[in-house]
Automatic annotation (TrEMBL):
NCBIfam families reported for this sequence: 1-PFK, pfkB
Source organism of the structure: Intestinibacter bartlettii CAG:1329
EC number: 2.7.1.144
UniProt superkingdom: Bacteria
PANTHER family for this protein: 1-PHOSPHOFRUCTOKINASE (PTHR46566:SF1), 1-PHOSPHOFRUCTOKINASE-RELATED (PTHR46566)
Identification of the protein by name: Tagatose-6-phosphate kinase
Catalytically driven reaction(s): D-tagatofuranose 6-phosphate + ATP = D-tagatofuranose 1,6-bisphosphate + ADP + H(+); beta-D-fructose 1-phosphate + ATP = beta-D-fructose 1,6-bisphosphate + ADP + H(+)
Function of the molecule: Catalyzes the ATP-dependent phosphorylation of fructose-l-phosphate to fructose-l,6-bisphosphate.
Pathway: Carbohydrate metabolism; D-tagatose 6-phosphate degradation; D-glyceraldehyde 3-phosphate and glycerone phosphate from D-tagatose 6-phosphate: step 1/2
Gene Ontology BP terms: carbohydrate catabolic process; D-tagatose 6-phosphate catabolic process; lactose metabolic process; small molecule metabolic process
Entry keywords, A to Z: ATP-binding, Kinase, Lactose metabolism, Nucleotide-binding, Transferase
Domain Carbohydrate kinase PfkB residue range list: 10-285
Length: 306
């Protein structure tokens, strides 16, 4: 079974404002509400691509109820721990001349609730896939993903991590199957500027040396680069289209990559489906549909650099 983990889900409130200004009332001319959080987005795209999976994590309060109900309505399987204190965050995504995001902190998680979550992780078995995505509530320790990986290290479980900074760096010693920072996150982790493909490859390889098996660097409209466990390097082109809402493009890429890999056992095909899924989401108001992803797949060119 595939499990996605969203320790800090969100309601994504996506609004369109002609011109965003601070210190004023801004009137919205379009608004949407979606169940969000990186792992939940991965769950939704995996399901669209026919990959059965279960979404895990924490929810709380009336916003948490919205998440659970939305997943049920979408026929998605989930096993969230309901926590007592605080509420599942509401993340505001403003589409104006630029995209501006305001992401909340998330609820308080008690020791007991964390242990309840670990009990769910204890049930995973050999052959399962575990996808750890996004930030964690601010009350939790940034070694949390590391602790989860340590828990499953004796089982034959492929772990994918889509996180940033220490949350990601701390897990590398447990050799995650795949990590997917974007180019900005990669630059931030090494405190460098990335000025060329060579720079991106150099630092992606560093993450591999530090333990990741495969490193996928997404670069928005500039495509993606994959350094594989065999040290092959693939560059992906992007599909053409008009960006509507790029929130979740990276999560769609992770889901497409895993679905493509499971289907073909080929990194090239995984990257192709990942890029098509990311693009299809960027060109949609909500996450991509299966039909749209299928339409874009043939547009994606994969070049082997090494
Ligand atoms: N404007 C675009 N045009 C075509 N493809 C795109 C575009 N934006 C994103 N994609 C595709 O989706 C992939 C992931 O996008 P991106 O790098 O923006 O992820 P991200 O920064 O993790 O996004 P998010 O955090 O919003 O989920 C890209 O590598 C690319 O293949
Ligand atoms: O604050 P985090 O956990 O890093 O990111 C959360 C988030 O921005 O990521 C998703 C898009 O990737 C959104 O659905 C959600 O609001």
């Amino acid at each position: 079974m595939i499990y996605t983990v969203t320790l800090n889900p969100s309601i994504d409130y996506v609004i369109k404002v002609d011109k965003l200004t601070t210190g004023n009332i801004n009137r919205v001319n379009e608004e949407h509400v979606y169940p969000g959080g990186k792992g939940i987005n991965v769950t939704r795209i995996l399901k669209s691509l026919d990959n059965d999976n279960i979404a895990l994590g924490f929810v709380s309060g009336f916003t948490g109820d919205y998440i659970i109900n939305s997943l049920q309505e979408l026929n998605l399987k989930s096993d969230f721990i309901k926590v007592k204190e605080g509420f599942t965050r509401i993340n505001v995504k403003v589409k104006s001349e630029e995209e501006t995001e305001i992401n909340g902190q998330g609820p308080k998680i008690s020791e007991e609730e964390l242990n309840q979550f670990y009990k769910v992780i204890d049930k995973l078995v050999d052959g399962d896939i575990l996808i750890l995505s996004g930030s964690i509530p601010s009350c939790l320790d940034e070694r949390l993903y590391e602790s989860i990986m340590k828990k499953v290290e004796d089982r034959d479980i492929k772990v994918i991590v889509d996180a940033t900074k220490n949350l990601l760096l701390n897990v590398l010693k447990y050799k995650p199957f795949l990590i997917k920072p974007n180019n900005h996150e990669l630059a931030e982790m090494f405190n460098v500027e990335l000025n060329s493909t060579e720079d991106v490859v150099f630092y992606a390889r560093k993450l591999k040396e530090m333990g990741a098996q495969n490193v996928l660097i997404s670069m928005g409209k500039d495509g993606a680069l994959l350094v594989t466990e065999n040290d092959e390097i693939f560059a992906s082109s992007v599909a053409k289209g008009e960006v509507v809402n790029s929130v979740g493009a990276g999560d769609s890429m992770v889901a497409g990559f895993i679905a493509g890999y499971l289907k073909s056992n080929s990194y090239e095909e995984a990257l192709r489906l990942g890029a098509a899924s990311g693009g299809a989401t960027a060109f949609s108001s909500d996450l991509a549909t299966r039909e749209f992803i299928d339409k874009l797949v043939d547009e994606i060119k994969i070049e082997k650099i090494k």
